[in-house]
Every structure is written in structure tokens, then in C-alpha cells.
Design a protein that fits this description.
By secondary structure, the chain is an alpha+beta fold. The chain is 35% helix and 21% strand. The strands form three sheets. It has a four-stranded mixed beta sheet, with helices on one face. Strands 1-2 form a two-stranded antiparallel ribbon. Strands 7-8 form a two-stranded antiparallel ribbon. It is rod-shaped. 18% of the residues are buried.
Length: 214
């Protein structure tokens, strides 16, 4: 009776031992598979070094281009010939400079001849110049063509004052026109080419030059 009881105890102990091993194995397996399930896998991710990470620049607005101020335009001039005196008290043809604006005044020769016919300004008169062109002279037209300029004046230009005065006004006109254009210049009186002018019949060769009255 005592042996059977002892034998049964031994069997029970062995059963408990194997049950403990099985339970331990089950717990170990559960822990392993649980860790596999709840923790990240072994996927390889290429993480760049911090030094190689490039931060995109911030969008900085480009300032608008500033226009450079235009250089001031140089003034242009025309030369108008009046009559004055030199240091020896001799009469000479003196060029007076006038500021010329092509956007307002048109061509140089038109502006110069128009200014000549209108006569010297008060300040220029005070500087000692005068004109032999009669005050009642009118410009009928100034026509510019590709190869020539035709200056058509009223008959007042050719009358009065005597021969010397007519010579002087002609030279004023010739010098003023030729200084302000490179084209051939022709003088007309009342629409007709002036080959003879003045009461004494001064002969003129055209186109006008410094030698037209020789």
C-alpha cells in the first residue's frame, strides 16, 4: 500500500515537471512571437548623413530692377549770323548761338532762318549786334528736299536800304543757312528763284555759297 502511494506521487511529480516545461515553452514562444508582431521589422532604410541633407532655400522675392537714370541730354545749338563790330570797330558777321530743340523747333535750318528773319533778341542787341534784314520780311516757306533747301521770302527782303544793305542781308542769310545744313540752298522771292535782286540788279548764282555775289 505504501509503495503504490509513493509510486503515484512520483508519477504526479513527473507530470507536473513536464507540464511546467510545456508551459515555459509556450510562454517563451508567446513572448517571441509577440515581440516579432509588435516591434518593427528588419527593413533597411538608408538614412543620409546630416551633413548631406540639403535644406531648400527660402523663397526670397527678387527686388525689381531699378532703372538707371538717363544721362541728361546735351543741349544743341544753331548759329545765326547778325552784324556787329570787332575790337578794331570794324563791322563783321557775328554768329549768335541759340538753344535748339529738335522735338519743338523742327530742322536746324528752318529754325535758324526763322530766327534770323525775326531779328536779334533784346539781350543780343545789348551785346552789340543788329540785322540788315527788313523787319517786314516774311517767310513764305522753307522747303527741305533730299538734296536741297528752298527758302522762299517775301519781296520786302529784296527792297529798301540800298545796295550795301542788300549785300549784307544776303550774306547774313547765306552764312546762317549754310552753317545749319549741308544741303544745297536756293533763295526764292515770292515763289520765283532769285537770280537778280535789289534795285541795282545784284546778280546771284545759285545754289547759294559765299561766292554767290561775286
Amino acid at each position: 500500500m505504501g509503495r503504490r502511494k509513493k509510486k503515484n506521487n512520483t508519477v504526479n511529480n513527473i507530470k507536473i515537471f513536464f507540464i511546467g516545461i510545456i508551459l515555459t515553452a509556450l510562454v517563451a514562444c508567446g513572448v517571441y512571437f509577440g515581440l516579432q508582431y509588435w516591434t518593427p521589422g528588419d527593413e533597411i532604410v538608408d538614412i543620409p548623413d546630416k551633413k548631406e541633407v540639403q535644406v531648400p532655400p527660402e523663397d526670397v522675392p527678387t527686388p525689381p530692377e531699378q532703372k538707371q537714370p538717363e544721362p541728361p541730354k546735351q543741349e544743341e545749338y544753331v548759329n545765326i549770323f547778325f552784324i556787329g563790330k570787332n575790337e578794331n570797330n570794324e563791322e563783321v558777321y557775328r554768329a549768335v548761338k541759340r538753344v535748339y530743340n529738335p522735338e519743338v523747333d523742327g530742322s536746324k535750318v528752318k529754325y535758324a532762318v526763322t530766327s534770323l528773319v525775326l531779328g536779334p533778341k533784346p539781350g543780343e542787341k545789348a551785346g552789340g549786334v543788329y540785322s540788315e534784314i527788313p523787319a517786314d520780311t516774311r517767310i513764305i516757306s522753307i522747303t527741305e528736299k533730299p538734296d536741297k533747301v528752298i527758302i522762299d521770302l517775301s519781296s520786302a527782303f529784296a527792297t529798301g536800304g540800298g545796295t550795301e544793305s542788300v549785300y549784307k542781308r544776303l550774306f547774313q542769310l547765306i552764312k546762317t543757312a549754310k552753317r545749319n545744313t549741308s544741303k544745297a540752298v536756293f533763295l526764292y522771292i515770292n515763289g520765283q528763284q532769285a537770280d537778280v535782286i535789289g534795285g541795282d540788279g545784284i546778280m546771284i548764282t545759285q545754289p547759294l555759297t559765299e561766292n554767290s555775289l561775286d
